[in-house]
Amino acid sequence: MKKLLTIALCFTMVLFLFAGCSGSAPSAAPAASSGTPAAPAASAAPADGTVLALKAAHVVSEESSTHKTLVRLGEEIEKVSGGKMTVEVYGNSVMGTAREIVESMQAGALDMAILANAPYSGFTDALTCFDVPYLFDSLDEGWYVLDDPFGTEILSDLENQGLHCLGWVGASWRNMSTTKVEAHSPADMKGLKMRVIESPMHVEHFNLIGCSATPMAFSELYTALQQGVVDGQDNHWLEMWTSALHEVQGYLMETRHIMDPTNIMMSKTTYDNLTDEQRGWVDEAFESAKADMRQITTDDELTNKQNVIDAGHCKVIELTEAERDSFKAAAQPMIDKYTESNPNVKKIITLTEEFRAQNS
Q1: What is the 3-state secondary structure (H, E, C) of 81-134?
Q2: Which of 115, 129, 308, 354 is most open to solvent, judged by the fewest CB atoms within 10 Å of its CB?
Q3: Cα separation of 65 and 83, whole Å?
Q4: How far apart are CA 335 and CA 134, in angstroms?
Q5: Cα–Cα distances in Å, from 201 out to 196, 208, 331, 336, 337?
């Protein structure tokens, strides 16, 4: 009897162990660029001795300066923290559209991102001043504005929207491109369906100069251009090259209509839930890597432009000053409107005039 009882007990234990081993594992997040599975967003600081893996996202290629910038910050965070914090970077819209990425950060489901400023316009008007066209004539003017105390103050409103900005890391021009039309003035672009960022101000600008503005997620753009759903778009040299937009565009006009400053944004939930020591690591790493991150964008823009030219698919039109002025004149009603109604636009104009006076 004892022998039978022992056999039954052993059999029960085997079944229990087998059931435990055969249970399905939880599904993993998409793999980061390093190939390492992502940890959950940092909704709470980990126990001592564990490694906290922050998730960072963007919507462009892994070859882009955006991706390289986040990787560079991750390297510095890992160095400063002695390996106790890392950053896993997810590109190519793996974590969603730009708007979805913002919403994920607000919810604390994603830790960090680099995006254009326009996607934030649906949540705060703090950065919409940078969507007004033709405020800058040079990147030096832009950095003068961003490095002024104004450049920090303008970010404070985002704290009320569940976001915490580490600071400005890049600045690059948006230029217009078309599939079939070589444009030297707004008249040449009349009626063209131009894909724009999902931002009311970008829509307003392109409609004002005579185009038919078509808001669309970046992940849909290449196919839309390829299939003729839209006739053109505007972007930086980064996207023209790394996302191969030059392959499906015939002409690029250097309108330099918007200087797009980029920042590294964090989920406020993530940032607030870090320990004081961990926040110190993040802030120190950002300051230590800032010069490198800015240089990455500058170098890549020059390289990407030359790559597009060398590829030969897309003719690059360097507009004369008079031709660029014709685009600015078409947008002047919008510039005047927001100079009057938006104090941040007025401040930008004041600072750029100050810079020009100092450097004339």
Answers
A1: CCCCEEEEEECCCCCCCHHHHHHHHHHCCCCEEEECCHHHHHCCCCCHHHHCCC
A2: 354
A3: 24
A4: 8
A5: 10, 10, 11, 14, 12
Q: Which two tokens stand for residue 222?
A: 């290449």
Specify the pairing of strand 251-267 against strand 212-215: unpaired
Q: Within 10 A of 307 (CB to CB), how many other CB atoms are there? A: 15
pTM of this structure: 0.80
Q: What does DSSP assign to residue 44?
A: S
pLDDT tens string 45-96: 555 679 999 999 999 989 899 999 999 999 999 999 999 999 999 999 999 9
β-bridge mates for residue 53, sequence order? 86
**Three-state DSSP state, 294:** helix
CA distances from 293 to 18, 265, 298, 323 (A): 51, 14, 9, 33
Q: Is there a contact between 222 and 102 (Cβ–Cβ < 8 Å)?
A: no
pLDDT tens per residue, range 118-142 = 788 778 888 999 999 999 999 999 9
If you ran DSSP here, which 8-state letter would residue 25 be given? P
Phi-psi sector, 92: left (phi>0), alpha (psi -120 to 50), beta: left
Regions in the chain scoring below 50 on pLDDT: 1-29, 34-40, 43-44
Q: Tokens 């998409």, residue?
A: 30
For 165, the token pair is 């900005």
Q: Facing residues of 234 across strands?
A: 176
